[in-house]
Amino acid sequence: MKKYLLTTLALLAAGTLHADTIGYTNSTSMISGVDSTFTLNKFDSSLGELTGVYIAYWTQFEDLRVQVDNDSLASQDGNVGFNCTLSSFSTTANHFGQINSLLLQVVAGQAYTLGATINDAIGVFNAQLGEDDYRDWSPGTLTGLDDGTIESYGFSEYTGTGTYSATINATMLTGINFAGDSVYSELNSPTSTWSGSVVYTYTPIPEPATASMMALAGLITFLMRRHVTK
Q: pTM score, two decimals?
């Protein structure tokens, strides 16, 4: 019974040792051809020993819409689309090749065949839902994302006071491409956002009560070993 009790106490004491996580997320709006920057907190080493760093960065585009109307007497083939191409990507905390910036780019589109004009005014845009000469492209949320885990030799880049920054510069284009010259359109640029997150895994510095439990676990283990050797 005594040995069982000692074993249970040792397990309970050891169970107080665990890993914690703390994370930060930030974002900023994107404007085509302009640097967009946000900051993320570094790991405060007073919390404990850093054991893992996970980072993720993403571009996001919402409320994109392209409407096209064919005013030609003949049907036309073409496409509508959106393109986000990166000019540059950088962070002040080295990501050691874990992030592939090409995955932050977004290319999306849709091919359409527009029927011949259907009794609408020639030379102006007309939205006639359900008609074969009109199409409405609303692709929903578009996202470019990449993430990665930093190797331990890079932890110093993410440790300390203050923040580190992530900057992107992207060209964003919304447009149409049809063979003829009698296709009229209405389109809007989407709401564009540049975001990132970092999650730190660490072994916390024991509180006094936890330190006492650790000492108790060591004592129990010593007594158990001494008891066995007798």
A: 0.81
CB 130 within 8 A of CB 190: no
Share of the chain above pLDDT 70, in %: 82
Beta strands in the chain (DSSP E): 20-29, 36-41, 48-62, 65-70, 76-91, 106-114, 134-137, 142-150, 163-178, 183-188, 191-204
d(CA 155, CA 135): 51
Q: Are 202 and 20 in contact (CB under 8 A)?
A: yes
Q: Are strands 134-137 and 48-62 parallel, antiparallel or unpaired?
A: unpaired
Pairwise CA distance, residues 128 & 116, whole Å: 13
Distance of CA 14 to the CA centre of its chain: 36
For 117, phi then psi, to 5°, come to -55, 145
The secondary structure element, H or E, covering residue 209 is helix 208-229
